[in-house]
Amino acid sequence: LFPATLTYDTLRFEYEDFPETKEPVWILGRKYSVFTEKEEILLDVTSRLWFTYRKNFPAIGGTGPTSDTGWGCMLRCGQMIFAQALVCRHLGRDWRWIKGKRQMDNYFNVLNAFIDKKDSYYSIHQIAQMGVGEGKSIGQWYGPNTVAQVLKKLATFDTWSSLAVHIAMDNTVVMEEIRRLCQSNVPCAGAAACPALESDVLYNGCPEDLGLRGRLPLWKPLVLLIPLRLGLTEINEAYIETLKHCFMMPQSLGVIGGKPNSAHYFIGYVGEELIYLDPHTTQPAVEPGDSGCLPDESFHCQHPPCRMSIAELDPSIAVGFFCNTEADFNDWCQQIKKLSLVRGALPMFELVERQPSHFSNPDVLNLTPDSSDADRLERFFDSEDEDFEILSL
């Protein structure tokens, strides 16, 4: 059964504020104190782009659905994690949305990439139609891996952002593959596409120098998505500390996942609770006003975010990271290596320099759990279980 759909007005009275706790609040790599920085926490959360169910948008494919209520929650979560990558790319992690304040053009360029119409780069229309190639009919529920694969394909058309999108399968991140993908000689598509707040193209993290152009390849900003299965029917406790650490990294884009048939975009944690944005609110589709300006308030969650116990998380997730420069990627690798030394934290994935010889081509990996697991796999919320290897202690 699909979750009941609530309106924005009924929701706004049901959210608890943050608990009064000495535990730090982590939001996408930023650490806050509830006692001294509550306004900063809420401003950070509100500034994330919030994509929910919409109704009365142009029919998908011309004759398909005009609303994604009941089936589009994971697609919306995919939009949210990817929008965070575009915000970091074009506006920077420190950018904040303030109600009523005039925003820069790049903000509206990012937002327009997700608007519910067929010609937006990452619209529900594009995701649903591209998903057909992944074996998902329009209106069918997606899992984290499918939405990641679709977004990777759509990003190739987004020349403005010029992103390198890598999906690490088989619970393994191969550094050599990522460097090969990001060290491309394809130039940025104009100054607006170059890294946020920088006027110069970055060459391996360094400002452009004419003498370097011929010698150093351009580093395309990296969006790294890692689909994972962290247990069979529930999350294995051994992964919880590692999952928390992912939200502490400055490269964090958060996590998409949720409960069976109900996807959420997780942006942080406090104590033993995950903090998330919930797409299960149906709002009217938005169209530009008479002036051509896009009304944007409904794309920002202006109440305290939802929370849930980490133990309730479904084991099928995708973790995201953004590395704007090669230095960011090298730093991320160092943090992942240190994380393997933390007591009581079981690694969620492996980081290797080059692809192990026993691997097949990453593009054709099709890892199938043992058939003896089939009865236990039935209750999983996603039909794409065959894309994951079961992790065990």
3D architecture notes:
The chain is α+β, with helices and mostly antiparallel strands and 393 residues long. The protein has one domain (26-183, 219-355). It has helices at 8-11, 38-47, 73-90, 105-112, 124-131, 144-155, 175-182, 210-213, 240-248, 326-339, 374-377, and strands at residues 25-27, 30-32, 54-55, 164-167, 172-174, 183-184, 202-203, 206-207, 218-219, 222-229, 252-259, 262-270, 273-277, 283-284, 306-309, 316-323, 350-352. The strands form five sheets. Strands 1, 2, 4, 10, 11, 12, 13, 15 and 16 form a nine-stranded mixed sheet that branches. Strands 3-14 form a two-stranded parallel sheet. The protein has a two-stranded parallel sheet with strand order 5-17. A hairpin with a 2-residue loop joins strand 12 (262-270) and strand 13. Helix 3 packs across helix 6. The model is unreliable at 1-15, 188-215 and 362-393 (pLDDT under 50).
Which short descriptors sum up this protein?
alpha+beta, disordered C terminus, disordered N terminus, 393 residues, 25% helix, two-stranded parallel ribbon
Number of strands: 17
Encode the helix/strand succession as letters: HEEHEHHHHEEHEEEHEEHEEEEEEHEH
The percent range for helix content is 25-40%
| Number of structurally distinct domains | 1
Structural class: alpha+beta
Count of alpha and pi helical runs = 11
- Percent strand: 15-25%
End-to-end Cα distance, whole Å, is: 33 Å
Ranges where pLDDT stays below 50 over 5 or more residues in a row are 1-15, 188-215, 362-393
Major sheet summary line: 9 strands, mixed
Mean pLDDT: 82
Compute the CA-based radius of gyration.
20 Å
The backbone outline, from C-alpha atoms, is globular
